[in-house]
Amino acid sequence: MEAGENEVVELELRLLLEGIHERYHYDFRGYTSSSLRRRVTRALEQLGCATISRLQEQVLRDENVFAQLLQFLTVQVSDLFRDPSYWKALRDQVTPMLGTWPSLKLWVAGVATGEELYSLAILLQEEGLLERSLIYATDVNAEALRSAEKGIFALDRLRGFSENYFQAGGTRSLSDYYTAAYGGAVFSRRLIEHVVFSDHDLATDSSFSETQLVSCRNVLIYFTPPLQERALGLFSDSLVHGGYLCLGSRETIRFSSVAEDYEEVVPEDRIYRRVRR
Ligand SMILES: C[S@@+](CC[C@H](N)C(=O)[O-])C[C@H]1O[C@@H](n2cnc3c(N)ncnc32)[C@H](O)[C@@H]1O
Question: pTM, whole model, 2 decimals?
Fold first, then answer.
């Protein structure tokens, strides 16, 4: 019996993900197949492979090809103070409560190239909380993490960043936090003095303990429900009673098994509070 082209591509994709898992221990099997297919198609064009099977052969035999493929499989789109209303809500409704803890641990999961991290650090600084905060900044993509650690962003992005910052309730000028160098804006090292950067895979690793806030924004949209469930379980294990969970604007805990353990703090900005164990 002949298989249709679509079935063959699905099979090739499954085999590629199995191969990656066995060979490199990265697990993309719980990602939604529509977005994976789009990204693998782009990788085929860029890496000059006619089929996924050809790509699989190269990926399994050459770890450099896998490193390149990883950049296609993980989406790095981000912005400083992305979704300003979320940051405004965090400033107005969450930081006063965070201030009641003597010390803080915060986990930014899926930090990408750092835009969200620098936004959070600036917000904590302006609310007088940065000095007592330890931030775990994690991502499955080590190259993105290295870039986050450098904290250099293209100059042509700053205007948009600055607009977001003001809409998010910023109290100073964004330019107070960076200097122009290396052809970009280099964000102050002081913002990341208390940041631990760590390679961490939500599909395979365990959680960080006793955090007051977990932010995982625009990551779960790429996951199928079972992988979303795994990630949300990690966040629940991580958060202390009364701790906050922040998701992206298109993400929700509503249909998950942990939904009952949280109250909605700012539903439209996907900010939840852990109130039950
Ligand atoms: C679209 S970016 C989101 C960046 C930032 N959180 C934001 O909202 O602007 C998605 C990030 O999730 C990361 N990611 C994807 N799968 C992951 C996994 N299994 N574990 C940890 N991070 C993952 C990607 O590498 C990427 O950096």
Answer: 0.96
